[in-house]
Amino acid sequence: MENRDDASTVPRLGEPTPASDRAADISDPDAELVAYSLGDRYAQGLMLGKGGMGEVRLCRDRAIGREVAMKVVQGAYATDREIRERFVREARVQAQLEHPAIVPVYDFGIDAEGHAYFTMKRVRGVTLEEIVERLRQRDPEMTRMYSRHRLLAAFVQVCRAIDYAHERGVLHRDLKPANVMLGPYGEVYVLDWGIARVRSASRDLDGSLGASRIDVAHDETAGAVLGTPQYMAPEQLRGEPLDERTDVYGLGEILFELLSLEPLHRHGLISARMSRDARSVDARPEVRNPESAVPPELSVTCVHACAHERDRRFASARELAEAVEAYLSGDRDVELRRELSAVHLERAREAASRALVPGAAPDERRTALAEAGRAVAFSPDDVRSRAVLVELLTRPPTSAPPEVLAAMEAEARDSHLKMLPRAALSLFLPWFLVVPGIAVLGIRDLTLVALAMFLYWGGAAHALVTHMTRRSNRNSQRRFTILMAAALAACSVFVGPLVLTPFLATTFAIAMVLHLRAENRVFVIGSMAFAVIVPTLLALFDVHPVKYAAGPSGALAIFPAAMDLPPTLTLVAMAVLHVTVIIAGGLYAVTFRKTMDALSLANRLQSWQLSHLVPEETAAAMSRPPPAMAATP
After folding, report:
1. 10 Å Cβ neighbour count for 625?
2. Cα–Cα distance between 564 and 54 in angstroms, integer?
3. CB 42 within 8 A of CB 65
4. Which residues contact 609 (CB under 8 A, 6 or more apart)?
């Protein structure tokens, strides 16, 4: 890349510049014209266009076999010496500016009638003027073909071509959208060098044109050789000396029009332009067209290029190109991210339409969530991507994926293992109060008391072993359940199967169902029921050690086996026992509820945080189904 000093030090046209610091000027475009015979080389074809002083025809070069564009002076001006001289200059200037964005000249000469002509590459495409007009009309095809990014990239090429011309000592002086053409394969051309000012020229053609030509200047008149009033820089209107910054102003006007789809200056003649205070023109595109959504950096670039005072503009076309390129470097990444977001959004919508169907496979939701997440990551401001993601997050699957079930199983197992030490203590320690209480009442059969106590202690031991080995599974939980059912059935030896045992069985069933595996819940309920049913059946068949008999006046008499039942002490003991069980069960329920409340609070806090990650417009979008998703079968 060529090294370059600060642009403010770049020499202006007309100032001496060391040859080592700049490209060589083009050769004198006003040298003597030598006539060469045209002969039969070019076969005339259709008229391609007509301007103020010349016309362009489609021709076939028989020598080479290709189509070329031939420009000639219109018949009315063919004998005008001034027009002829400027026509010759245009051909020589354009021929010597060898740049990809400048149409190459193939041949130059005088035909048999003495009219000057030159041939050049036939270019196909559409001018920026046409593009802007159709974009202003919201033409869908033009909108699809010419994005802002593509137009800005073409504009950079135009700036580079003008910078090259400036290096060769040439000012264009008539830069406007109509003089920039975009080809179908990415070509960019700067057209119409007819009024170019050349540093190396040996003659001043402008002075010979006369002031009258300036006053009537218009696109469709001969006066257009000095420029188009609508696109002239202020100093050009005032007839002051020009430099590279004059063309920078013209480039700025083109940029303004690309961004706002409106010209910076309205149509009109020079007199109308000069009567207005140019300083009052606001060069911010978003002010002229509020719907244009122009990024701030491009707006600043536009204002800088179109500054009324030359010393406030970019010093060169290269500086302007680099400013727009700096934006495109970031915008290119943004554009790529938007394209990728659109791809992932489409995939997310397709997967979501399948995932939100009841009974959908978990893989569909995984795909939809992953694609929606990628779409949001690539384009966080896209409401559509966020809407799909929120839709998936707020509509959980009807069937749980295997990994969710596995996580729940692991969580339940950990909860069960943490509960086991407390369960062991609750099964072991109370007997140090129960046994003395039974002794106060009076023990009749120590074996029956010991049976119940050791069954409870067996359950406590099983709980501790399971906790230490971390082996809580379906079978170990069922063994523990059977052991607890046997312990509860053994309690019936104190006051029978229908007094204490049902109450304890209910409490144990609730506690165990809350902590054991889901597949064991029915087994637990059934086991606790059998802890009541079996002793009751034994009592009915008079096999149970506690006997029931009918007392006077229909009373039911209980004949204990393991202990005595003095009325007063038994009443107090049973009341204390039941209150203790109620308190223990209540405290357990309180602990369990606190745990559930903590989990609920954690979930609500998470939802609260997620709600603040979703902007209001996304929440509004969620009030209706996304169109693409609703249309998907």
Report:
1. 13
2. 132
3. no
4. none
Q: Quick one: tokens of 352?
A: 């979501």
Q: What is the pLDDT of residues 586-627, one digit of tens each?
A: 777 777 778 777 777 776 666 665 555 555 555 555 455 544
| Alpha-carbon span 242 to 281, nearest angstrom | 21
Q: Are 151 and 98 part of one and the same domain?
A: no
Cα distances (angstroms) measured from residue 293 to each of 281, 552, 623: 19, 99, 27
Neighbouring C-alpha atoms within 13 Å toward the C-beta of 115: 15
User: What is the CATH classification number for the domain harbouring 114?
Assistant: 3.30.200.20
Q: How many domains does the chain have?
A: 4
Residue 434 within any structural domain of the chain: yes
Both tokens assigned to 219? 């696109």
Q: How far apart are CA 267 and CA 127, in angstroms?
A: 18
DSSP string, 241-256: ---HHHHHHHHHHHHH
Residue 495, in any domain of the structure: yes
CA 417 to chain centroid:
45
Mean pLDDT within 4-15: 40
Tell me the mean pLDDT in the region 138-153. Answer: 93
> What Rg do the C-alpha atoms of the chain give, in angstroms?
48
Domain limits for position 13: 1-30+124-315
Q: Are residues 432 and 540 in the same domain?
A: yes
Closest CA to 454 of 423, 487, 495, 494: 487
Convert the pLDDT of each residue in 458-478 to its tens digit.
999 999 999 999 888 889 999
Q: Are 162 and 247 in contact (CB under 8 A)?
A: yes
> Is residue 259 domain-shared with residue 150, that is, in the same domain?
yes
In 339-453 the beta strands, taken as DSSP E runs, fall at none
Are 14 and 149 within one domain?
A: yes
What's the DSSP call for residue 102? B
* pLDDT tens readout for residues 25-78: 777 777 766 555 555 788 888 888 877 678 899 998 888 888 999 998 877 777
Contacts of 341 (CB under 8 A, 6+ apart): 374, 375, 376, 378, 379, 382, 385
Beta partners for residue 197, in sequence order: 171
Structural domain includes residue 548: yes
Same domain, yes or no: 498 and 510: yes
Are 352 and 301 in a shared domain?
no
**Sequence-separated (6 or more) residues with CB below 8 Å from residue 165:** 97, 99, 102, 171, 172, 196
Question: Of 315, 348, 374, which marks where a domain is finished?
Answer: 315
Boundary of a domain, candidates 78, 104, 122: 122
Residues 294 and 343 in one domain: no
User: HSE-up of 437 (CA within 13 Å, CB side)?
Assistant: 15
Statement to judge: residues 500 and 459 lie in one domain: yes
